[in-house]
Amino acid sequence: MNKVVANALEAIKDISDNTTIMLGGFGLCGIPENCINALVEKNVINLTCISNNAGVNDFGLGLLLKKRQIKKMMSSYVGENDEFERQLLSGELEVDLIPQGTLATRIAMAGMGIPAFFTPAGYGTEVAEGKEVREFDGKHYLMEKALHAQFSIVKAWKGDKAGNLIFRKTTRNFSASMAKAGDITIAEVEELVEPGMLDPDQIHVSGVYVHRIFQGIDYEKRIEKRTTQL
């Protein structure tokens, strides 16, 4: 099976309107810049995006928000994106705010084939509305379902043509779990090598989970908030 595609536009060619997509990254750390830009260019609309947050106003998922291409965000943080906040408060954007640990675990459970789990996070709050509650050892827990997507899009530091991926430091964040939770997983990488050139002990995601892979270009790797010390 040849998993290598030429570029981001080819990788996302069958993503259409009304699709549910997972996108790796945390803030601006490790986001799939090339594929996000390709989605903007393709102008698909009514997307449901599952991501920790939505980037910033003029970068990352913020570009899709700016063009009103996202119908619903499933995330844990509104944060640094003024347009995200504005659309949320005005009712223009449907938002499912999920506790961060719950979001991460729902994605991981999807990759493991586990349909649901119980967590105390959110009990007694709006998060609990409509969810099954059980008591274990005198403590209440919510049942949360695994979170799947039609497409998972991640960005890795290195990958081989068989789809094996290595992430660098904190860029692994949500991406390693998301790569296992999509029906189709697309990976863009900073360096694409031949099979057998990656150290097996360093691989974070096995190629069995990855359906398309390509060599990314022109990464900005923008810093969301620069902190300096005198």
TrEMBL record:
PROSITE patterns: COA_TRANSF_1. Keywords: Transferase. The keyword Transferase applies. Signal peptide: none annotated. Pfam families: CoA_trans. GO terms for molecular function: transferase activity. NCBIfam families: pcaI_scoA_fam (TIGR02429). This is CoA transferase subunit A. It comes from Pinibacter soli.
